[in-house]
Amino acid sequence: MPHERDEIPPGVFRVCMVCTGNICRSPMAEIVLRDMVQKAGLGHRVSVTSAGTGEWHVGEQADPRTIDALADRGYDASMHRAKQFDSSSFDDLDLIIALDRTHERAIRSWASSDSDRSKIRLLTSFDTDPGRQLDVPDPYYADPATFAAVLTTIEQACAALFAQLEPAFRAPQTSTHA
Questions:
Q1: Is the pLDDT of residue 4 over 50?
Q2: What is the pLDDT of residues 23-40, one digit of tens each?
Q3: Catalytic pick from 25, 34, 45, 65?
Q4: Which of 4, 6, 68, 97 has the greatest CB tally within 10 Å of its CB?
Q5: Taking CA 49 as the corner, what is the angle to CA 48 and CA 52, rounded to the nearest 5 degrees?
């Protein structure tokens, strides 16, 4: 499960990036978005995690080419360990970001309510570039240059996502105390 209920304080917006094995695309997206959140001083308002639709790599580090591509741009992926998305996570998440339409379909099939389905979005759907790809390509069977290109796509889409979400993160938190 990408989130443990008692680890994240109430009022924190919880985002989970999802790809196939949680060793290439979703760790990139998690680390890129988390970096944007931290640099904006909003780490106390937003939690970013990632998971895979399958269990093949659970517990493993990110693919070495993922780690290298991220490191080349100043990101640290050394602590990442792959997790599998668990349908019980819907209650613990505010936004579930699929890296391609296959992931989006799989997650939607696991959703048990309209509320759960309303939390699912395709990462590229935030990017307004008319030339954008709908799916973030899977670099797993490709070379390091492809990993770098996929990271560029993810950085652009995460910047668009963050631009749309940041105003809500910056809005004053409402207190429920009298």
A1: no
A2: 999 999 999 999 999 999
A3: 25
A4: 97
A5: 145
Active site (annotated) includes residue 101:
no
Give the chain's domain count. 1
Partners of 122 in the β-ladder: 98
Residue 5 included in any domain? no
Has 19 been annotated as catalytic? yes
Query: In terms of residue numbers, what domain contains 161?
Result: 13-169
CATH classification of the domain holding 144: 3.40.50.2300
Catalytic-role residue among 117, 132, 135, 138: 138
Catalytic residue among 16, 19, 24, 158: 19
Q: Is 72 a catalytic residue?
A: no
Contacts of 135 (CB under 8 A, 6+ apart): 99, 100, 101, 102, 122, 124
Residue 125 falls within a domain, yes or no?
A: yes
Is the residue at 154 inside a domain?
yes
Quick check: is 3 in a domain?
no
31 CB neighbour count, 10 Å cutoff: 26
pLDDT digits (tens, 9 = 90+) for 70-112: 999 999 999 999 999 999 999 999 999 999 999 999 999 999 9
Q: How many angstroms separate the CA atoms of 108 and 116, rounded? A: 8
> Quick one: which of 8, 20, 28 has its CA closest to 71?
28
